Amino acid sequence: MARSDLIPWRWGGLRQFEPEDRTFAAFRREMDSLHRNLDRAFEDLWGESPSSTLLPELWSRKEVVPRLDVTEDDQAFHVSIELPGLDEKDVAVSLTERTLTISGEKKAEKEEKEKDSYRRERAFGSFRRVLEIPTDVDAARIEARFKKGVLTIELPKTKEAQQKVTKIAVKAA
User: How far is CA 86 from CA 51, 60, 82, 129, 169, in A?
Assistant: First the structure.
């Protein structure tokens, strides 16, 4: 058995190379074809090619997208979002019907003056997260607390929304 028979892309129903087609140019054509096929697969999956932007769009615009956790129980929705480096005055929370919007902006400026040097640094970033709440919330009882860089929002459900919940027993088949 020749070493060339061990190359995986030569097995089975894949296209066989002719001896004169074993040049670097042929290899390059195959790699370009593979690259185009992978780009097409990503476009089908996410709507854009990874080669069109090496960094995600949000990174290239320098927007911050803080992660959040949303949990629900019979009484309320609980939203927790980590916002390190921000204070409560930097964050805005609003509820419009069933849409919760959390936004904020960080503006940090640092200035150092020494005998022979002057240094000034700035860091800016903003974010906006919008969540759709699936049931009615009692807007008068909403609480938002900010402690040690974590924003916690309690969204109590209305009495009507709490009564609409029907628990269904799951039986083994």
Answer: 34, 22, 9, 15, 44
- Asked if 125 and 105 touch (Cβ cutoff 8 Å), the reply is yes
Residue 161, both tokens = 């929304």
SS (H, E, C) 70-122: EEECCCEEEEEEECCCCCHHHEEEEEECCEEEEEEEEEEEEEEECCCCEEEEE
What is d(CA 166, CA 135) in angstroms, rounded to the nearest whole number?
A: 14
Distance CA(8)–CA(158), nearest Å, equals 62
As beta bridge partners, residue 130 has: 101
What predicted TM-score, i.e. pTM, was given to this entire model?
0.53
Residues 6+ apart with CB under 8 A from 87: 146
Give 83 or 10, the one with higher predicted confidence.
83
